[in-house]
UniProtKB/TrEMBL annotation:
This is DNA-binding protein. It comes from Labrys miyagiensis. PROSITE patterns: HTH_CROC1. Gene3D superfamilies: Jelly Rolls (2.60.120.10), lambda repressor-like DNA-binding domains (1.10.260.40). Pfam families: Cupin_2 (PF07883), HTH_3 (PF01381). InterPro entries: Cro/C1-type_HTH, Cupin_2, Lambda_DNA-bd_dom_sf, RmlC-like_jellyroll, RmlC_Cupin_sf, TransReg_Diox_bact_type. It comes from the Bacteria. SMART domains: HTH_XRE (SM00530). CDD domains: cupin_XRE_C, HTH_XRE. GO terms for molecular function: DNA binding.
Length: 203
């Protein structure tokens, strides 16, 4: 193979890789529901550069690809790999599931959400004995908590406002100020709790 033919083959491979990279970055960014600006902020890569990568208008350096892979929480191999996501199943056993208890010991929060998402999404399995109280400090500004009742009856208090819920009902409330969950009645309570930490939610 001549030098010119070899160079043409390498150029063709670079173009194919660039096209694949742009599609992968865009797909992962949208999967995380990130805007170009948010990905730029999290990765340290300029918004204009990310836009060019997604449109296949530039061949980024390895350092740029590494920054994007860190922000998107994937390996460089995956970013540079196939545009089709490989099957993904991850199992966490009961023993490996972190558990948090309230000060009174009557409320139990099992961290069932992905630990890699705790900065923007937190998901818990909430179980509590009768009379249990879970008091929480304010989370970051604009955070919203969703409490879906599966069993028992609970009340949530936020800034002096109190609302009760029974099985089948969901309470959504700002948790960027001190708040408390109390079990009402003489039956244990069970609920799922999801906390969205995005500050823009309540803007």
């Amino acid at each position: 193979m001549s030098g010119l033919e070899k160079r043409s083959e390498l150029d063709a491979g670079a173009v194919a890789l660039s096209g694949q990279l742009g599609k992968t970055v865009q797909r992962l960014r949208k999967a995380y529901n990130l805007s170009l600006s948010e990905l730029a902020e999290q990765s340290g890569v300029a918004k204009s550069i990310i836009s060019q990568i997604e449109r296949n208008e530039t061949n980024p350096t390895l350092a740029t690809i590494w920054r994007l892979s860190q922000a998107l929480d994937v390996s460089i191999e995956r970013v540079l790999g196939s545009t089709e996501d490989a099957p993904f199943i991850e199992k966490t056993t009961k023993v490996d599931t972190p558990v948090i208890f309230s000060d009174d010991g009557k409320c139990r929060l099992a961290v069932v959400g992905w630990l890699k998402t705790v900065e923007w999404l937190q998901w818990y399995d909430f179980q509590a004995e009768p009379g249990g109280v879970l008091e929480s400090d304010a989370h970051q500004r604009g955070s919203v908590e969703c409490l879906s009742i599966l069993a028992g009856e609970v009340e949530v208090e936020v800034a002096g406002v109190i609302e009760r819920a029974i099985p089948g009902e969901t309470l959504r409330y700002r948790c960027d100020r001190p708040h408390a969950i109390r079990v009402v009645g003489n039956k244990p309570a069970h609920a799922t709790m999801v906390c969205f930490m995005k500050a823009a939610l309540m803007e």
